Amino acid sequence: MARYTGPKARINRRLNTLIYETAGAARALDRRPTPPGMHVRGRRPSNYGLALMEKQKIKHYYGLGERQLRRYFDAVSHKPGNTGELLLLMCERRLDNVVRRVGFTKTRPQARQGIAHGHFRVNGVKVTKPSYILRPGDIVEVRGRENLKNLYRGVIANASPDALDWVTFDSENLKATILGLPGASDISLPVDANSVVEFLSR
């Protein structure tokens, strides 16, 4: 699941959400917002089916496998507060998500690829795990190689980054600084997280 390589447009149409942000997948959702397949248009999904779809949104959007999602759920289920919200906030703090949202890349799969290839450092140390959870005070920057800096400057020049209150981004020095923890308004995925919590609690 963390390395889904199938047609991204089908996932966008099936979940009726812009999960994959490539140009072709986005156009497909705009052009044909109905689910793929011949016999699905008249069918109404059950409550179980709806909850499963919401869970699939989280897995595809953040690039999580089933075991990884359940690990995150176990980590937040005993904390005070809304468990669904806490689950999404943990996903928002992933390194690949922050790299995408500040504008280093155009999509999350691109962010995961760049991190896995060692293009980024956190607090001066090369990190190759896209699932690395960032904390307040962490500094994310492109490694010092000139070819990498030129690559990401080109991407940033054509990117449309999200405005984040909890992260500052220095596009000149290719550096993002984590100021604090994200809040509920910073969650970028429209999803019914409470139904996912009920699904995972079974």
TrEMBL record:
GO terms for cellular component: small ribosomal subunit. GO terms for biological process: ribosomal small subunit biogenesis; translation. Residues 3-92 form the Small ribosomal subunit protein uS4 N-terminal domain. One of the primary rRNA binding proteins, it binds directly to 16S rRNA where it nucleates assembly of the body of the 30S subunit. With S5 and S12 plays an important role in translational accuracy. PANTHER family: 30S 40S RIBOSOMAL PROTEIN, SMALL RIBOSOMAL SUBUNIT PROTEIN US4M. Belongs to the universal ribosomal protein uS4 family. Part of the 30S ribosomal subunit. Contacts protein S5. The interaction surface between S4 and S5 is involved in control of translational fidelity. This is Small ribosomal subunit protein uS4.
